[in-house]
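for the writeup, i need someone to sanity check this before i put it in the appendix. the sequnce is what the collaborator sent (i think, or maybe the updated version? ugh). structure was predicted straight from it, no edits. if anything looks off just tell me and ill rerun, i have time this weekend
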Amino acid sequence: MIYQFGLGVALSGAIPEELAFLLAAFDFPLSPHLLSSLSPVYPNGFPGLALLFLRVSVGWLFILHGYPKITHLRRWAESLKMPIFLCFLSAASMLGGGIFLIIGFLTLLATLPILCSMIFAIYLHITGSKPFVAQDPYLIPQDQYQGALGQGEPPSWEKAFMYCVMLIAIAVLGPGAYSLDASIFGR
């Protein structure tokens, strides 16, 4: 109980007075549970199971995306023409955030860095003139698109957009009752 009080005091001291007033106007709770989600409720039953499935699925997908990026960091940074440090932050947020999403720990803090990475991925695709939804690979003439390893889908920003939608849903709805957050911050 004392850690919740300490966390609440730390959070309330870290939020500027103007923002605290705005949040209070919308009846936004300033408490330690904000580390978990934007909602103070941890649904159980079928809604809780649905959130568990969403959280674990998205977390696993980001582990699958983050691990190869972190193990081939230099090659990934060179292909994006980005500094290695920024690529490391993105890959680490995917890998670490994926693990935290699976166990449901500090869920809101786990979603935000990944969400930033996905928004930046959308930006890169849009500035690279990639379509929202690419043409299906079976409709592309033979040998016109081979992908990075001779297979795959043409680039588009559809997948990054869908990840953003899923991460926003997790951030707003929370991890559900079947999470570490619920056992730590639940009421």
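The two ends are 11 Å apart (CA to CA). Confidence is low (pLDDT under 50) at residues 1-15, 19-26.
thx in advance!!
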